[in-house]
Write the structure tokens for this entry.
Amino acid sequence: NQRFILAGVLTGLAVATHHLSILALLVLLAASTIKKEKKASNDLTLGFLAVIVFVTAVFFIITHGEFIKQVLLYHFQKPPEEVNKAASLIRFLNTNSILFAMAAIGILARRRARLVVLSAAIVALYLFSFPIIKAAFNYYLIYAIPFLAVMAAYGLDSIYNFLMEKIRLTRAMSIILVIAIIFASAFPATKQF
């Protein structure tokens, strides 16, 4: 399907602009894998790789190979930093506590075993990487934010439906409460500045 190839191309362009966008590809691939759509996964990957290989080749030629050294290998050559990793992790959890709570609600509300397993695998990966990563751990925690935001959106949707169907609040009141949760999630972050 051309839509999946186009999605892969757009994701490739996003990653070429900012590497954190790689998470969009991972989410799309995870979704197509969960739905057992192998053709969609292949088309996504094909579109993505076409852009990344092209962009990398162009910059490799222009910089005579320096692109690989300065953009890719640089991250593996960073010296270890004296950072209290536990403090960084706790600060990250405290700052994003509401985001984590909403994401947990979103995951559990879907009642899908595969989604729970996928989420548990991501958490396990972070916990495993936590003691062995040599650079500042605080930086690499940023990669969790897009995934948490997607899951938190599911959580907010579940809360909205709960308020409407179970508590029987009006639509306006339910929307106001959901918006209040979104604003409340920003307050812990302001304490970091």
